Amino acid sequence: MKKLITTIAIFIIASQISFVFASGGFGGGGVAQVPQGKDREKFHLGKAVFNQEVEFAPAVDKTKEVAQAERLDYLQGSLPNTEKRRVNLPDFAGKLTEEQLDALEYFVSIRFNVKLDKK
Description:
By secondary structure, the protein is mostly helical. Helices cover 59% and strands 0% of the residues.
């Protein structure tokens, strides 16, 4: 009987220790899920704008430049440091349509988990 209790005690202790040494890994934040439906189109347009894969207006629209610059500065400040070095969003000021700017804000909010003010 004493051997049985000793064996059970050793088994319990060994199983507890294995939890301590288990790797388990770190899940991290991961990449946000790509939305479905019409939000998917908006997400991909924003991604294309962010990666400069779309044609911008050749001339800067001075009437839109100031308003867009303010929104783009906020987005730029919200990006992780690695992305800040890769892309300069304020350079797009005055060159984006309203649809492109909305899609860019949507993409950044989903991809980088940025909370944007509702308009």
